[in-house]
Amino acid sequence: MRPGTKNxxxxxxxxxxxNAQDELLKSGTTVLVADEPFVASVNVMGGAPGTRETDLLAxxxxxxxxxxxxxxxxxxxxxxxxxxxxxxLHQNGRGFPVLSARVPLVPAAILFDLxxxxxxxxxxxxxxxxxxxxxxxASESFALGxxxxxxxxxTAQHKGGLGSASLVLDNGVTVGALVxxxxxxxxxxxxxxxxxxxxxxxxxxxxxxGPDPDPGFILPPxxxxxxxxxxxxxxxxxVATDAQxxxxxxxxxxxxxxxxxxxxxxxxxxxxDGDLIxxxxxxxxxxxxxxxxxxxxxxxxxxxARAIARAIWEATPSESDLLPCLQxxx
Length: 330
Hints:
By secondary structure, the chain is of the alpha+beta class. The protein has five helices and eleven strands; from the N terminus they run E-E-E-E-H-E-E-E-H-E-E-H-E-H-E-H. Strands 1, 2, 3, 4, 7, 8, 9, 10 and 11 form a nine-stranded mixed sheet that branches. A two-stranded antiparallel sheet has the order 5-6.
């Protein structure tokens, strides 16, 4: 395995990602879109999810695929970002055909970032416009860190953010991950200077800090809880591949990818997190051996662990932040 050329989810041909954010709001939206509709599913393991149109991704549901996926800040308000994306896709002639009508299918998931010192006294919900703008910004190249859905994200000890990573397997299949990391748990070890995901780092993609030399798993008190007085959390992600998969196998890949979340965040999947992973297939490369599915699931988990660490590593400071960026403390 090796990272793709960009080490982004867009190393999978046909995928594009766009970000939009509001610095005063301290929040934003990220959209993944493809040249054509794609097969997709989802797995939710957190106890407090916020979603739109995820039921249609179940393997037994008749919807053939999705036109775009949305990750957004804003808690329940952020689900409206999908409406902006849906409206723009409809204007562009995209959507599931129903006789003479077309209905774009745009599943979405949100994270809670309402207590991060951003201006939340908006007269009108800003997320539909952010969703439309993120779609307009969609490109094969995109920024990481304090952008898009990761703009207002936080972890137990540091600012969170938006991350991505990819792997090209020996059989030529590409796997990638995109994540907005805003967990209750910590992405760094008790010292605060090493990533839990360090064993999976390739090169210096998140600083090359290496594993923590001090053993132990007892975490210090959460800065996030102290700063916010109450908890606002959730890590939401997308894993993708160009291998030809159906909805049932996409669901299985999303399940496997949660291993990567657990490797990178301690604790993860808590009752106060809405941890969720979408999984999609562009269906370009047929598989010759069923055993290759296990490798794809494993690669998805590794990509996600790396993407989470990259999200925190790439975070940048903003005015009135409640928590520091990791790089500020090294």
